[in-house]
Amino acid sequence: MSEKHQRSYGLQAPPSLGVKGKKRYGMIMDLRKCTGGGACTMACKEEFGVPLGVTRMWMKEENRGTYPNTSKVVMPATCNQCDYPICVRNCPTGATYKHPDGFVLQRYNTCIGCRTCAIACPYNARHFLPQHRSNPDQPTQVVDKCSFCIHRVTRGQQPACVEACTARAIIFGDLNDPESEISKVLAKERVTVLRPEMGTSPQVYYIGLEQGGVADPISCYSDRSDQMKSEFDDYKRNHPGLQFGDILESETSPLKFSGQIVGHMKDFIVDIFVKLGIVKH
Q: What local confidence, expressed as pLDDT, does residue 138 receive?
């Protein structure tokens, strides 16, 4: 591993204990087993009805070599459920908060959509939900991200991505339980975390990342926006006539586009006062 990348890894970073007497959930991505099949990302989208153009979990892919001697390396990524989350400290309304069991969660009813948390996140793990959703009961115009499937975990189930992975490349469990699978793996395997210099204490660990993994692991996060836009544009080209939540200037007249922007800004400002309880809707 290069000296540059050594600084980007938290080699053998120990898991924190979180809140004393509580559970502390974490996740391991074993890149030695990951095939890049994408079942984890698809299961996540299905579980939460994630709209087109955004993802809670995504996959970085790199092709290596020249034909016919080619290979592919992959790296799944998601919210790191940090012990010291910068997003929580920067949220102006308390919509982003830390659960005692280690989950970093989102209160949709108090989120004003300012996206301060998304800007602060060093892992680019947050996205903004569009105004129009296929399911009217789903949240709109708020920030969202991976929640470690807390609704499943509290019922004794595994997160959707873990359950869907046929290669068993994702391990999830209680870091405070020495008998849990994740604790046993962390005790014997060489693991890494991303961007330890940020002081966030991420609780997503990687095995095999420093040995033949993607050339620049940080690019998995920094390239995410371009990757999502490319996938979104490809989908639109192959599905003409569908209506999407995102507004693109090229898809409407300048006058209509300006009117939409003004309307959204008005809704955004009104929503701030409503969610802060200053005025009634």
A: 83
